[in-house]
Amino acid sequence: MELTALASIPEVIQIAIADDAGRLLDCAGDAEPPTAAILVLAHATLSAASELGRRSGSGDCLEIVQQHDGGVIYLHGLPQRRVLLVRCRNTDVIPLIRTACEGLAKPITTRIRPVSAPSMNLSDALHAEPAW
């Protein structure tokens, strides 16, 4: 399911996907896109919860639902160190979002082809200059 379809769910204000560096990868909804600071905080919040889960023996954090004065923030961990950030008006919509998010849990692929390094034999590797 595309983000625009997720954003069209009633009570959803905004949906964004970010990487762990705070880069916005995709966004949909009526509100202004979240800033890099918000995206970094979202990722850090999920990471901190994962650390708590690992240390307590429960494993990585899969999702967080935060209730605030002005609405709800739903954080969902995605593969490749990405996070889904959903702003909505209330928690009633969370089950719909969970179901819709199943398609987003697939790893993303890139169209950039990896650069192949020239092959070296062991003798060349032992006498090569350090890269630094």
Explain what this protein looks like in three dimensions.
With 132 residues, the chain is an alpha+beta fold. Helix content is 28%, strand content 27%. The chain is built from 4 helices and 5 strands; from the N terminus they run αββαβββαα. The chain has helices at 3-7, 36-55, 94-100, 122-126; strands at residues 12-19, 24-29, 63-68, 71-78, 82-88. Strands 2-1-5-4-3 form a 5-stranded antiparallel beta sheet. A hairpin with a 2-residue loop joins strand 3 and strand 4. The chain is globular, with a radius of gyration of 19 Å. Mean pLDDT is 82; it is low at 110-122 and 128-132.
Summary keywords:
five-stranded antiparallel β-sheet; 27% strand; alpha+beta; 5 strands; disordered C terminus; 4 helices; 132 residues
What are the SSEs and their pairings?
Elements: H1 3-7, E1 12-19, E2 24-29, H2 36-55, E3 63-68, E4 71-78, E5 82-88, H3 94-100, H4 122-126
Antiparallel strand pairs: 1-2, 1-5, 3-4, 4-5
